[in-house]
């Protein structure tokens, strides 16, 4: 964390010639030159607006400043959102399309432009604050592309209802957390079904063979993607 309230937004804005962006684009060009289709270069992993906010302010300050100075935080989140979109578009413009579409970082093809974003730091603020303070900025990112996937963690799924109430993102990805940080995967079947009623769902993480087979059996196949590292059955670990 390096930004304190009151802040000067000009110190945060993405400027032309930013050395980190220049290096990212240099690496992207090198990857495109190295690999030929159908091996696809994808968007790099990027943190969403609330994650950028917590990186700037620190976790504790993020909570207090959102409470005390919400309008100023929204202005800062807008700057973060614009930087995210600018970087993602700049990288995408260097990547050749594949069959008139692009692949996401999850290895899935979309018939148009695609973006991956995340809101991990929403774990700091809960469902009500996420919807009022953060969701509009995540939505802006998703609306800047034809298709969009937002990354969530299984231990913090209170954002799901807000994300299902809007058109974008077009898909939701959930990483299965270890049991120290999240519930047993099979206990999330009702949430998975709710998502699949409205949007495609990507489930990724460590699963036992029993959990994997149960998800395949209990969930509708349309719109479902499971990318799992399968482990031997151990009921004491899998729940």
What does this structure look like?
The chain has about 240 residues and is of the alpha/beta class. It is built from nine helices and seven strands; from the N terminus they run ααααβββαβαβαβαβα. Strands 3-4-5-6-7 form a five-stranded parallel sheet. The chain has a two-stranded antiparallel sheet with strand order 1-2. Strand 4, helix 6 and strand 5 form a beta-alpha-beta unit. The longest helix is centred in the middle third of the chain and has 23 residues. The chain starts with 18 loop residues before the first helix and ends with a helix.
Give a brief description.
This protein is of the alpha/beta class and 239 residues long. The chain has 9 helices and 7 strands, in the order ααααβββαβαβαβαβα.
SSE layout:
Layout: H1 19-34, H2 49-57, H3 59-68, H4 70-92, E1 102-103, E2 109-110, E3 114-118, H5 126-143, E4 147-153, H6 160-164, E5 171-175, H7 189-198, E6 201-208, H8 209-218, E7 224-231, H9 235-238
Backbone shape: globular
What does the average pLDDT come to?
96
Strand order of the largest sheet: 3-4-5-6-7
How many beta strands in the DSSP annotation?
7
Distance between the termini: 37 Å
Beta-strand content estimate: 15-25%
Unreliable residue runs: 235-239
Please tell me how large the radius of gyration is: 19 Å
Major β-sheet profile: 5 strands, parallel
Structural class: alpha/beta
Our count of helices gives 9
H-E order: HHHHEEEHEHEHEHEH
Helix proportion range: 40-55%
């Amino acid at each position: 964390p390096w930004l304190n309230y009151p802040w000067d937004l000009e110190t945060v804005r993405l400027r032309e010639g930013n050395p980190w962006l220049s290096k990212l684009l240099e690496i992207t060009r090198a990857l495109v030159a190295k690999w030929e289709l159908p091996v696809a270069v994808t968007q790099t992993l990027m943190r969403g607006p609330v994650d950028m906010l917590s990186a700037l302010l620190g976790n504790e300050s993020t909570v207090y400043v959102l409470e005390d100075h919400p309008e100023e935080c929204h202005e800062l989140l807008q700057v973060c959102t614009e930087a995210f979109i600018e970087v993602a578009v700049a990288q995408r413009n260097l990547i050749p399309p594949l069959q008139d579409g692009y692949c996401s970082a999850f290895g899935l093809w979309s018939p148009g432009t695609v973006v991956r974003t995340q809101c991990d730091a929403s774990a700091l603020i809960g469902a009500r604050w996420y919807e009022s303070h953060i969701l509009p900025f995540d939505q802006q990112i998703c609306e800047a592309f034809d298709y969009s996937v937002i990354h969530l963690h299984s231990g913090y799924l209170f954002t799901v209802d807000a994300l299902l109430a809007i058109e974008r993102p077009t898909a939701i990805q959930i990483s299965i957390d270890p049991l120290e940080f999240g519930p047993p995967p099979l206990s999330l079947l009702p949430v998975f079904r709710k998502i699949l009623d409205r949007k495609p769902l990507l489930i990724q993480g460590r699963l036992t063979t029993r959990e994997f087979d149960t998800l395949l059996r209990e969930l509708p196949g349309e719109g479902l993607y499971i990318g799992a590292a399968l482990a031997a059955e151990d009921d004491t670990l899998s729940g």
